[in-house]
Write a structure and sequence with these properties.
Layout (H helix, E strand, L loop, with lengths): L2 E8 L5 E8 L2 H10 L3 E7 L3 H6 L5 H4 L1
Antiparallel strand pairs: 1-2, 1-3
Length: 64
């Protein structure tokens, strides 16, 4: 199953691009961008599902 990754990358001319990319792992996503001639500046898995809607769970220590 492919996941969606958010990335920010730089082309050979120094222009910054950002977007999403489907891949099985962050390593695969990075390799795809490098093959296309981009230098990856940032990459992370796109949030989804319930966690993406509501954020991280609050722990007991956060409340007290």
């Amino acid at each position: 199953m492919s996941l969606s990754y958010l990335y920010k990358a730089r082309d050979p001319l120094g222009n910054i691009f950002q977007g999403t990319l489907a891949a099985h792992s962050v390593e695969e996503a990075t390799q795809q961008l490098r093959r296309d001639g981009y230098h990856v500046c940032e990459i992370e898995e796109e949030s989804g599902g319930w966690e993406g809607l509501f954020g991280k769970r609050i722990s007991r220590n956060d409340v007290t």
